[in-house]
Design goal:
- The complex is a heterodimer.
- Chain A has helices at residues 14-29, 39-58, 75-102, 106-124, 129-147, 154-185, 190-198, 204-220, 229-236, 239-263, 269-292, 297-316, 325-348, 364-367, 369-383, 389-403, 407-433, 447-465, 468-478, and strands at residues 64-66, 71-73.
- By secondary structure, chain A is mainly α.
- Chain A has a domain at 271-482.
- Chain A has a two-stranded antiparallel ribbon with strand order 1-2.
- In chain A, helix 2 packs parallel to helix 4 and helix 13 (325-348) crosses helix 19 (468-478).
- Chain A is globular and about 65 Å long.
- Chain A starts with 13 loop residues before the first helix and ends with a helix.
- The mean pLDDT of chain A is 88.
- By secondary structure, chain B is mostly helical.
- The chains are: A mainly alpha, B mainly alpha.
- At the A-B interface, helix 1, helix 4, helix 5, helix 6 and helix 8 of A face helix 4 and helix 6 of B.
Chain lengths: 482, 170
């Protein structure tokens, strides 16, 4: 028994090593830092995320299996890792001011952000369910803690506990599914499943395993019967973490879901297609109708994020490999819309007073035209108004459904986005056509929020008008399914 | 060589005991009793692992679950005075009935699936698969990457525990 560990492959996981090393380093040096210089930690986090991004870009042309097939480098993984790192950078830029304002314990905040990102990156670029599961747990565990960061806030504690318990439950479903699959195929590698299924060897146990895995992922991306935690957790978490979850967790989980189902279980689409079809319809309709009556803007955005998962699922159920690039495009656009929207929500708050009810936004355009303008762009993009990226994303997703013959699903999706327009535009109406109802005090217009908002706006407009480049990238990414 | 009949008897006793103690665990009112029934479940599972030649996992099941984690459970129960158990709500609402129906359905589905399942593709490997040497060898070679990630996972767990336990600011 002599197996040599492939040391030379370590250079290919440089981005992961950088994040991990900086996470450990930050935990260590926080002890020696004076209280006043804590923003230094944020800067270091930015440096690590930036250098990891550089390495991801450098390694993006590689496509190979590493460490005995337990980890992989390919275009889908590289694009998602890039997206996740850009999202991390945006969230950290916001956090530079937010952490200071809310007096968050930054010594744990930044390392946990890094570890959570590491978990996402591992999850999206592995073809082995064992590694995927460990990555998913690393991501989730860090986020459970981050959600409960405001220990003195009852809502945050409730959110953290609820997310932790339900998340542990969902993980159990996922592991049970993986165990049943291993039992019926003897493999943990998603290519291995494909070989067994391609032989026409599908037992009931295997189908149950696939169903349980779908439940595990559906929880993480908050599809409707598994969404109960979303509004409470999004509301209770620190807003920067809400943005991180809405954009990062959802993208990472969706890409992994896509990879597992489109690589291994595509021949079984008859079995899971109809279930996901139904889930997509319920998710969109339920989330949009519930969002209509929300008075709290964070809850409204939480329901909107559930609804967006439903839209993405519309393209997912078609099982069209080449058209699944629309899913990647949607996730990228969705990330920027959400991070931008949450940065505006953060802007409106102060220490101890978050100003989350919709009345706080009344008459905002007169007092703070810039904030009102930014939020308007993000909400219009979420609605799907051209020329913003949100429109192109919805266009691609629904046209995928139509091309694949799912016309009814596309119609239900479009009807739903019409309903959704009501609650997005209502906020805009409050900002521009209502008189201020209450005094919200001086808002916290720090450069870090402005920078994030401007980057997001630029991106949304740029990719909305010139979607070609991003679409080509997305098509390159999904070429791994062939 | 152990006779196959003996193996069957051990398997039947251990698995029936595991199911029985699991049911006892969830139906007991007193949390201490529940915890003790859980120990029985863990130990019968360990016996099942032994039968499968997974000696390493059987031993760690006893040391970690039946030993360490159980101590923690009991310690917490005693610490926060849960001996009496919370007042139970005896209301059987519509959602509860719905949940029961769904759970029974899921259980029956899995049971039927497993019952009709016949091994076709998967050939079990050579027998001494689960001893400490093989497991250790695999962990430090083929599975080193997820193993290292798991170490970070544990670190995050520790950080989280410390953070939640830190004294609140007065």
């Amino acid at each position: 028994m002599d197996v040599k560990f492939p040391v030379d492959e370590l250079i290919l996981i440089a981005p992961e090593i950088i994040l991990c090393g900086f996470g450990l380093l930050l935990l260590l040096i926080e002890v020696f830092l004076k209280t006043k210089s804590k923003s230094f930690l944020g800067i270091l986090t930015l440096v690590s995320a930036g250098s990891a991004l550089v390495f991801v870009l450098k390694l993006s042309s590689f496509s190979t299996d590493l460490f005995f097939g337990l980890y992989s480098l390919d275009s889908l993984g590289s694009l998602t890792k890039g997206l996740i790192l850009v999202m991390l950078i945006l969230v950290v830029i916001m956090s530079l001011r937010y952490v200071e304002r809310e007096e968050v314990i930054s010594g744990e905040y930044y390392p946990l952000l890094l570890f959570s990102t590491l978990g996402m990156m591992i999850m999206v670029s592995s073809k082995n369910l064992l590694t995927i599961f460990v990555g998913l747990e690393l991501m989730s565990l860090s986020i459970y803690i981050l959600v409960g960061l405001f220990r003195d806030n009852l809502k945050a504690a409730e959110a953290s506990l609820k997310y932790f318990l339900l998340g542990a439950f969902a993980s159990a479903f996922l592991v049970y599914g993986i165990a049943l699959l291993y039992g019926s195929t003897g493999s943990l590698d998603i290519k291995g499943y494909l070989e067994v299924i391609a032989k026409g060897d599908t037992s009931t146990v295997l189908i149950i395993g696939v169903a349980l895995i779908a439940v595990g992922f559906a929880f993480k991306i908050a599809l409707v019967p598994f969404h109960m935690w979303t509004p409470d957790v999004y509301e209770g978490a620190p807003t920067s973490i809400t943005a991180f979850m809405a954009a990062g967790v959802k993208s990472a989980a969706f890409v992994t879901f896509l990879r597992v189902f489109y690589t291994a279980f595509l021949p079984l689409i008859k079995q899971w297609g109809d279930i996901l079809w139904l889930l997509a319809v319920i998710t969109m309709s339920y989330a949009n109708l519930t969002a209509l009556v929300q008075q709290n803007i964070k809850r409204m955005l939480a329901y909107s994020s559930i609804a967006h998962a439903g839209y993405i699922l519309v393209a997912f159920v078609t099982g069209e490999k080449i058209l699944s690039s629309s899913i990647i495009y949607y996730l990228v656009a969705y990330t920027f819309m959400n991070v931008g929207a949450f940065s505006c929500v953060i802007l409106m708050g102060r220490k101890g007073e978050e100003n989350l009810d919709i009345d706080s936004y009344a008459g905002l355009s007169a007092r703070h035209p810039f904030v009102a303008f930014c939020l308007t762009i993000f909400l219009l993009s979420l609605t799907g108004v051209p020329p913003l990226a949100g429109f192109m994303a919805k266009f691609y997703v629904f046209s995928t459904a139509i091309k694949a013959g799912y016309v009814w699903l596309a119609i239900i999706g479009v009807l739903n986005s019409v309903v959704a327009a009501y609650y997005y535009l209502r906020v805009i109406m409050y900002m521009y056509f209502r008189d201020p109802v209450k005094e919200i005090g001086r808002i916290d217009l720090s450069p870090s929020y402005i920078l994030v908002s401007l980057i997001c706006i630029f991106f949304l407009i740029y990719t909305g008008i010139l979607p070609r480049e991003l679409m080509l990238l997305a098509e390159g990414a999904v070429s791994v399914f062939f | 060589m152990v006779p196959i009949v003996f193996k069957w008897i051990v398997f039947l006793v251990a698995s029936l005991l595991a199911i029985f103690s699991a049911i006892m665990m969830v139906t007991r009112r007193n949390p201490v009793h529940s915890a003790l029934w859980l120990v029985v479940t863990f130990i019968s599972l360990a016996v099942l692992y032994f039968l499968l030649n997974a000696t390493f996992i059987a031993i760690s099941q006893i040391i970690v679950y039946a030993g360490a984690i159980m101590m923690l459970f009991l310690f917490v129960i005693m610490l926060i005075h849960l001996e009496k158990g919370p007042e139970e709500l005896k209301v059987l609402g519509a959602s509860k009935i719905f949940a029961i129906v769904l759970t029974v359905l899921l259980f029956v589905e899995i049971a039927v699936g497993v019952y009709y399942y016949r091994v076709t593709t998967f050939k079990p490997g050579p027998m001494p698969l689960g001893d400490a040497k093989t497991v250790g060898f695999l962990l430090y070679t083929n599975y080193l990457f997820p193993f290292e990630i798991a170490s970070i996972l544990l670190l995050v767990g520790i950080v989280g525990a410390v953070m939640l336990a830190k004294r609140r600011k007065e």
